[in-house]
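It is time I had a proper look at our fold encoding. Can you supply me with one protein entry, sequence and fold together? It will help me judge whether the discrete encoding reads sensibly. Leave the record below and I will have a look:
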Amino acid sequence: MNNKNGINNNMLLTLALMALVVLGWQYFVVRPEMKTEQAHQAALAHQEKTHPLTPGAGANVPGMALSSTHMGRDAALKVEGARVAIDSPLLDGSIALKGAKFDDLRLKKYRETTNPKSPEIVLLAPKSTDFPYYAEFGWVGAPDMPSDQSVWQQQGSGALSPGHPVTLSWDNGHGLIFTRVISVDDQYMFNVADSVTNNSLGAQTLYPFAYVAREGVPKEQTSWVLHQGFVGVANGSETDANYTDFKDEGAPAKTFSSTGGWVGITDKYWMAAIIPPQSQNFDASYLGATTPGDVKAYQANYRLPARVIAPGGTAQVSHRLFAGAKVVDILRGYEKSQGIARFDNAVDWGWFWFLTQPLFWLLDIFYKFIGNFGIAILMLTVVVKLLFFPLANASFKSMSKMKKVQPHMEEIRKVHKEDPQRQQKEIMELYKREKVNPVAGCVPMLIQIP
């Protein structure tokens, strides 16, 4: 009985030490970082007052004031007018020529249910549907810029597919001609190459921008277990935010600047993220607003530095849009091949990422080799058991020794029951003489895996 009490006390001590480490981390690491971030955002707020962000990177961003009318998906697609079809191995959908919006995208390899004939997963949807989710790219800084109501013209015909880009154009009627070349790979990445030709008599200063927006959040998408909402990387660090951060009307935007990185809005399994040129600085923000229909709308955006376009000159910029399933191999492939900083952070690895990432890697290898997740999990369990076997074996040996010295401990307690200090000293000498480690006996209880 006393042996069990000793083990329980050691377990409580271990848990107390773990709690102390967590509290120390919060106080000495997280708290200073929060103060630094607050100071940074205060500086950005002051900068906005003295040099306000143009639409596309802050408040009043095009697309935040959404329609309060909702209709079925097919009807909404017709309302938007002419479209350019998207047909790739993993995606199908269309791009609206009105606004050149990415607002119709489905995932070919994923279904709403386990029935292979069930509807494809809908990722992006037009504004007038129940849960709009879309991405836009553009320019701001001068009058008569293209908006979400501008109707672009497709040069040529045909669907957007790997190896077959589409070219769109729009003329503002005042000397500026906007051209957009959109391409898609065989997975989930779009490239949006924008250019502006200045045929006016004076120089023009324009700012490229991009954003991902959604209106409302389906209930089945919310979960406290993992992060869903705003996600991104700036200056090599995560820049996440929750939908609840903007539940109050007038909640300030979360703003930040970076050279290299990305921003987006993520669900449990899917994500839409915009990626600026990784060598350029950008100003970004996460914000929320209330639509005329009293539904919350959310937006992740960035704005790039000014492009000064002389008469007869042309400015160019290339954005990227990831829209698809958060498959770790695909994300890491883009991270390596396209230099996108920490792109696999789109997956919520949790606080203990240093454990979950290698365990996932090993589980993924077993699954690819066997083709069955159940067997892969069993194999992972065996491997972890084997890794911990030396420690567990030593602990069991220590527990066995403790059982042998238990009668001697009872005798010491009886003889020195009036002298606790002498009793403790004699027990420690007994441990030393018999080479017993009482703490090691707790280890098997702490490392057991279901």
About this structure: The mean pLDDT is 81. The longest helix spans residues 2-50. Residues 145 and 297 are 23 Å apart (CA to CA).
